[in-house]
Amino acid sequence: MSxxxxxxxxxxxxxxxLFLGLTSLVVLEFTSAxxxxxxxxxxxxxxxxxxxxxxxxxxxLYALLYRVGLxxxxxxxxxxxxxxPLMVSIFLNTAAPVGEAIFxxxxxxxxxxxxxxxxxxxxxxxxxxxxxxxFVVAGLAFLHSRGKLPSYDLIVCVLFVxxxxxxxxxxxxxxxxxxxxxxxxxxxxxxxxxxxxTFKRRESTSDTWAAQSADQFSEASTSxxxxxxxxxxxxxxxxxxxxxxxxxxxxxxxxxGQHVALGTVTAGFSMSIVLYVVAVTPQGVGATESVMSLxxxxxxxxxxxxxxxxxxxxxxxxxxxxxxxxxxxxxxRIFGGQAAAKRPDQxx
Length: 348
Prior knowledge:
By secondary structure, the protein is mostly helical. The chain has helices spanning about 5-30, 35-40, 45-70, 80-90, 100-110, 115-130, 135-145, 150-175, 180-200, 210-225, 230-255, 260-280, 285-300, 305-330.
């Protein structure tokens, strides 16, 4: 086994330990192991099955969102075929934001433009984040109306909105002044590399990163303007994806015998998305479970049940996709899996 692969396996083990450790800390922070076990044992299996089906449907819609997003940039794909790359991208993004490489690889395997696929991923990311905003606003309004809006929830939501605005500004700048965007990206790249050198870390981007990223944003913005119908379709799919995901969270409350207001579900769901984006831990692990548990408990849900619902939701949304992503990754060409043995004329 090469040293690089050995380091990769140790990194995977370290991430697993981190995830398990932080999840255990969340449980012990809000309840005892005994109460947690009792709450888990009280689950109604039929509602768990309904929840699982809803989360499965949400991932199908997520793959559909990618299909429509790639179609906007004229990259053809199939929804079911995109499920595997989607899971792999979730797995890869636990360590670094490199998930887009999987969709570039998918396009290359199907003899299509990898550069356009990268632009399509940017488009999907913007639509995904933007269609979360109605849920975030509704959740914050509900918490404010109940006098349960803590300052940290408001701060992370503001940061989340700033992230969206940065992406929208980059798309706009790529459309009207691509050279300015490239200069800004080059400046940010130099600043990031300076920080990396300060901490004696390897520079994570190549010399061509700024130009390539500017090209991808330019391609995405041009394609969005040229295909308003497909763009509108992607927005509808994005809204459906989030709505089904929130419905899955609601049925988890029913599974553990809790009838809660839709506002509580919306607030918890929106905070899970916000922290997934802005939290410093991989996939927001630890922070997301803690904030969701605290939010649910503040709305009158028993502490043990609040933790169980939050963690079960994250198991369906993060843990299972991570495991599937790891298994799929071992079979993909980009990782030297079985697909690597195929000749170019065998790829379809």
